[in-house]
């Protein structure tokens, strides 16, 4: 599947005409496909390379060392989550993955400090911690620009989302799908699902496997060039827009048998707003042909509900 490719520099550095064209192109792609590949996204290639390098070093540690960073009570929102803990909504089969999550950082005297638990610092791979911090800030910046374009497409003020995602509850997730060592119960490394958040930014995974469900019900493989990131709509944005922008169903399939002995690494950035943001459907997205489809809920309440559904929160 050739997903639409957009150039973020047209929006951030272009003429008014280029900016308007980008807004329309992005919005149409999200209405029709739900995924786009973004070039000139502003996240340095060297930073992405270092992130993959240090994350792979972490996952190569013995299980006993990694398990030190699995912190009870955090619902997997910080630190390490061991293999087989998470499953897709509506599925009881655990995904074939382990992951490490890095969240929002605020100053010790910030009023938001009590909202966010401290990030988990890894001793064995010292460069990992500052690399994740820098990657997080870069993803935030690119994600904010994309949300500004989405706001304009929805007829909102360009900066509608800014104060919601400033110090928002975003998560940088580093995923390892280990080698398959025996006949798997499922052909799926990550069962079909939709993301919880507003938008997800994904830098190129280390191997193929990502598939999206097309409008005609077919699973199609998604690939992007090394200088691109893939960005998709999440459930929070779908709720806010009353299904105008749809959260696309996707999954990660197992590789061909001859590649079972290989790992797959993936680094999605789940862009969340602050928990108090209302996800009540925008009035501009409700009409006689599109009646209100969702009950009012806040981002925090919705996240809590979904974490329980996927097995990360009791």
Q: Which helices and strands, and how do they pair?
A:
Layout: E1 5-7, H1 8-13, H2 16-32, E2 35-39, H3 45-59, H4 63-66, E3 79-81, E4 98-103, H5 128-153, H6 162-165, E5 171-177, E6 188-193, E7 199-203, E8 210-213, E9 219-221, E10 228-233, H7 235-240, E11 250-253, E12 264-271, H8 299-309
Helix pairs in contact: 2-5, 3-5
Structure description:
There is one protein chain. The protein is of the alpha+beta class and 314 residues long. 28% of the residues lie in helices and 19% in strands. It has eight helices and twelve strands. The chain has helices at residues 8-13, 16-32, 45-59, 63-66, 128-153, 162-165, 235-240, 299-309; strands spanning 5-7, 35-39, 79-81, 98-103, 171-177, 188-193, 199-203, 210-213, 219-221, 228-233, 250-253, 264-271. The strands form two sheets. Strands 1-2-10-7-12-5-4-3 form an eight-stranded mixed beta sheet. It is globular and about 55 Å long. The protein starts with a strand and ends in a 5-residue tail after the last helix. 40% of the residues are buried.
CATH topology: Jelly Rolls
Helix-strand makeup class: alpha+beta
How far apart the termini lie comes to: 38 Å
- Total count of domains: 1
Q: What portion of residues belong to β-strands?
A: 15-25%
- The overall strand count is 12
Radius of gyration: 19 Å
CATH class: Mainly Beta
Low-confidence stretches: none
CATH superfamily: B-lactam Antibiotic, Isopenicillin N Synthase, Chain
Shape, please?
A: globular
Helix content: 25-40%
| Secondary-structure element string | EHHEHHEEHHEEEEEEHEEH
Calculate the mean pLDDT score and round it.
88
CATH architecture: Sandwich
What is the overall number of helices?
8
List the strand order in the largest sheet: 1-2-10-7-12-5-4-3
């Amino acid at each position: 599947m050739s997903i639409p490719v957009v150039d973020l520099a047209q929006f951030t550095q272009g003429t008014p005409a280029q900016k308007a064209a980008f807004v329309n192109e992005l919005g149409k792609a999200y209405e029709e496909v739900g995924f786009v590949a973004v070039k000139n996204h502003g996240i340095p290639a060297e930073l992405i390379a270092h992130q993959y390098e240090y994350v792979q070093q972490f996952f190569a540690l013995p299980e006993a060392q990694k398990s030190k960073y699995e912190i009870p009570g955090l619902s997997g929102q910080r630190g390490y989550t061991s293999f087989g803990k998470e499953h897709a909504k509506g599925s009881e089969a655990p995904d074939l993955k382990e992951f490490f999550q890095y969240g929002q950082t605020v100053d010790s005297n910030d009023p938001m400090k009590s909202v966010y638990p401290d990030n988990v610092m890894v001793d064995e791979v010292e460069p990992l911690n500052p690399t994740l911090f820098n990657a997080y800030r870069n993803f935030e910046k690119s994600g904010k620009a994309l949300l500004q374009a989405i706001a304009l497409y929805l007829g909102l003020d360009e900066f509608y989302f800014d104060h919601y995602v400033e110090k928002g509850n975003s998560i940088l997730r580093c995923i390892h799908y280990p080698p398959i060592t025996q006949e798997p119960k499922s052909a799926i490394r990550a069962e079909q699902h939709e993301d919880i958040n507003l938008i997800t930014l994904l830098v190129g995974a280390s191997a193929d496997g990502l598939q999206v469900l097309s409008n005609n019900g077919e699973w199609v493989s998604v690939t992007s060039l090394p200088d691109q990131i893939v960005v998709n709509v999440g459930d929070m944005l779908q709720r806010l827009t009353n299904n105008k922008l749809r959260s696309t169903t996707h999954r990660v399939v197992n590789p061909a048998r001859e590649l079972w002995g290989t790992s797959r690494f993936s680094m999605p950035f789940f862009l969340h707003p602050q928990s108090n943001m209302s996800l009540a459907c925008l009035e501009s997205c409700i009409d006689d042909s599109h009646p209100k489809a969702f009950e009012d809920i806040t981002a925090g309440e919705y996240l809590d509900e979904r974490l329980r559904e996927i097995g990360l929160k009791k």
